[in-house]
Amino acid sequence: MSLHGAKPRPPDRLYSRFTFSIGGCGRQHQRLHNLSMSAIGYGNLQLSFLSITDSEVLSVEPPDAIGALGGDAVRFEECDVTDTVVQYFGDVSGNLGNTFGWTQNGSRALRTRFLVADPVPLIPSYSYRDDYQFSWYGSYPQEWGALQRYSHLAESTVEYIRDVQLGSVNLTRTRFRPWLDRGNPIFFSNSTRIPPSIQL
After folding, report:
1. Sequence-ordered list of residues with C-beta below 8 angstroms from that of 125, at least 6 positions apart, any chain
2. In this structure, what are the phi and psi dihedrals at residue 85, rounded to the nearest 5 degrees?
3. How many CB atoms sit inside 10 A of residue 39's CB?
4. Among residues 196, 191, 150, 151, which one has the least CA distance to residue 177?
5. ∠ CA 190-180-20 to the nearest 5 degrees?
6. How far apart are CA 124 and CA 77, in angstroms?
7. Going residue by residue through the chain (200 aa), what tens digit of pLDDT does each one get?
8. Of 80, 90, 94, 151, whose CA–CA distance to 115 is shortest?
């Protein structure tokens, strides 16, 4: 699935605040398998209450020049993400469900790689903002008595742009590493007013 013809965007492209959402009624019932999705500058992916396996996702948020975006580059709400590669630029969030009557345990990622995609080759004259965040939030599972049986991030790799926030999550053999590339806006002189942070 491609929302842009699988081509780099022209420098004078006008971007809209558009997200592409797929929602299910439970990760045990709705499954996406072998999904290939590319969203460059608009159509950023939001998944909720489903499972996704053996997939590849590329999602780059619009340039900062268009103003407030109203969404993450990639967002998972109460999802299972397995054996998947997520290439992104922008914010990534894994959240617990906020729907009455459904689970509120948080999303899980197993054997999944979150990798930063340099936006400049994809969107010429890309403009950055100062704050980028990878966040993953969970809770104690309602159906299990022991938290150690529920890993929110397991056997996965997280490459992050700037800030990391983790809340009420169980991590198992997961590696976090910064995006050490000259294209990272954190290395620009005007983006160091507030130092990067990792919050647990």
Report:
1. 11, 63
2. -110, 120
3. 23
4. 196
5. 80
6. 31
7. 555 554 566 656 655 567 788 988 888 888 999 999 998 887 788 999 999 999 999 999 888 766 545 568 999 999 999 999 999 999 999 998 776 556 678 899 999 999 999 999 998 888 888 789 999 998 865 555 554 567 899 999 999 999 999 998 989 999 999 999 888 888 765 555 667 788 87
8. 90
Q: Cβ-count burial of 167 within 10 angstroms (0-12 exposed, 13-18 middle, 19+ buried)?
A: middle
Residue 29: what pLDDT?
86
Tokens of 190: 């005007």
Type of residue numbered 25 = C
Angle at 133 between CA 132 and CA 134, to 5 degrees: 140
Distance CA 175, CA 48 (A): 24
The answer to whether 137 and 168 have CB atoms below 8 angstroms apart is: yes
What residue type is assigned to position 169 of the chain? V
**Residue whose token pair is 């000259």:** 182
Read off φ and ψ for residue 23, nearest 5 degrees.
-125, 145
- The residue written with tokens 């996702």 in the block is 57
